[in-house]
User: Fold Isovaleryl-CoA dehydrogenase from Streptomyces alanosinicus.
Amino acid sequence: MSTLGILSAEEQFIVRTVRDFVDREVKPVVRELEHSDTYPEALIGRMKQLGIFGLAVPGEYGGTSVSMPCYVLITEELARGWMSLAGAMGGHTVVATLLLRFGTQAQKRRYLPRMATGEIRATMALTEPGGGSDLQAIRTVAGKDADGYLVNGAKTWITNSRRSQLIALLCKTDPDASPAHRGISVLLAEHGPGLTVSRDLPKLGYKGVESCEVSFDDYRAPADAILGGVEGKGFAQIMKGLETGRLQVAARALGVGRAALEDALAYAQERESFGKPIWQHQSIGNYLADMATSLTAARQLTLYAAREAQAGRRVDMEAGMAKLFASETAMQIVLNAVRIHGGYGYSTEFDVERYFRDAPLMIVGEGTNEIQRNVIARQLVKRGGLDV
Ligand SMILES: Cc1cc2nc3c(=O)[nH]c(=O)nc-3n(C[C@H](O)[C@H](O)[C@H](O)COP(=O)(O)OP(=O)(O)OC[C@H]3O[C@@H](n4cnc5c(N)ncnc54)[C@H](O)[C@@H]3O)c2cc1C
Assistant:
């Protein structure tokens, strides 16, 4: 059974549609867009038409929500074409799931219908210049007064922030709270006076979409802008959202790894040395075998975590394992793809060098792999080991 066989016929059709979009419309233009670091306006437009920004929004709000395994496989397809496209919908989907799960009725009605079409795009602003791993130590403060919230602070590395109309901002509404997480909230921020997207950060890969510094200087938000309407719940809300985010990053790693394997497999059959295709040299054949084996294992682990999430279970450990394993696997696969391509693996006229630059983001983003190991170890102890 192919991997798609686990999905309903309708969801299989959606994944195949995205696969065709990638092969016909993304692959032919990606190298040029990536090397010129051009925002993929037309491709994002097509993603809106395909309903990709509404994948986490239910029909009653105008979206077409899909199961978590389907979401993972769609993300893999997009990342196979260009990781940046999967990134452009990643934070957006997490914010949609946060709104659905925790938002007030008014917040859902305000944002979800326009998020479903991509008219409103959303991003998450967690990381600060002082650090991204220790989120309880954030310094951005939203103080309440008679006019609502007054926000001051700075965030960094916020992807899609220039083009997102909605920023789910992690901030302190009670900086003196103890423990610190009780003073953290998610504020639904829209662009306005005092909110400045100040600088596009230069990056190794993940080109085309912007990752920026964002500052809040006496930025004003209305009193009803706290996600769910109650202060102090933001840390737990974001941790839940990151379960989806980490599955998304795992799926992005699968896509980059698969692209690298596909290119390497094709090249190893075309390229000859010592009178035979290079795949027939045992070293190269072994690379291919290892790449395919580890990619298959990473996909199964990711789909396992996705199925657990779909069943409504807590999946911080499972999503952490998927993200950890899939991203480390992708790193190894892209390195082997460079090796298999010989000198051309180092050429900017081949796509493998892009995979090699894109893969490291997945070991860092949405919580570094060191942090995933902390989460997994803590859960192993708490749950009394693996549930077999
Ligand atoms: C291209 C890109 C896009 C991004 N997009 C976004 C975005 O849209 N929104 C957003 O909020 N953030 C975003 N980030 C930020 C990203 O989530 C952070 O970079 C990441 O969480 C790590 O934070 P840091 O860079 O501050 O590293 P630090 O927290 O300073 O960590 C530095 C090193 O110390 C290790 N370390 C820290 N604490 C521990 C610990 N307790 N145990 C073991 N090791 C530890 C880390 O694993 C890492 O190796 C993006 C980053 C990049 C590069």
The chain has twelve helices and nine strands. Strands lie at 122-125, 141-145, 148-159, 166-172, 184-190, 195-200, 211-221, 272-273, 276-277. Residues 234-270 form the longest helix (37 residues).
